Amino acid sequence: IDLAKSVKRIMSQPWDDDGTLPIITTSIGISMPESMEVITEHKFMKAADVALYEAKHAGRNTYKISLPINT
User: Fold this and answer.
1) 40-45 — which CB contacts under 8 Å span 24+ positions?
2) How far apart are CA 67 and CA 31, in angstroms?
3) Backbone dihedral region of 4: left (phi > 0), alpha (psi from -120 to 50 degrees) or beta?
4) Would you say 29 and 62 are in contact if contact means Cβ atoms under 8 Å apart?
5) Mean pLDDT of the chain
6) Secondary structure class of 60 (helix, strand, coil)
7) pLDDT grade for 70, boundaries at 50, 70 and 90
8) Of 1, 71, 62, 61, which Cα lies nearest the Cα of 31?
């Protein structure tokens, strides 16, 4: 979560692109298993994708966490 906050902070810094200042927002999806159980790569990535779309739906420029489900 600290890494997500750092990425958001760095991406929000203004930078000059030939005289224009673009506005950049960052949506981050984080996938974290609840335990040390074995999670397939597909389920891990799917949980991160779900979290990313939740972050975008929440108004963007944020991060969300989704737990992969091992079924």
Assistant:
1) 40/70, 43/68, 43/69, 43/70, 44/68
2) 6
3) alpha
4) no
5) 84
6) coil
7) low
8) 1
Q: What is the 3-state secondary structure (H, E, C) of 17-55?
A: ECCECCCCCCCEEEECCCCCCCCCHHHHHHHHHHHHHHH
Nearest partner of 9 among 26, 21, 31, 22, judged by Cα: 26
Residue of higher predicted confidence among 33 and 48: 48
Instruction: Output the six-digit token pair for 65.
Output: 């966490």
- pTM confidence score: 0.74
CB atoms within 10 A of CB 19: 5
Say if residue 51 is exposed, middle or buried (CB neighbours under 10 Å; 0-12, 13-18, 19+). buried
Q: Taking 60 as the threshold, does the pLDDT of residue 71 lie above it? A: no
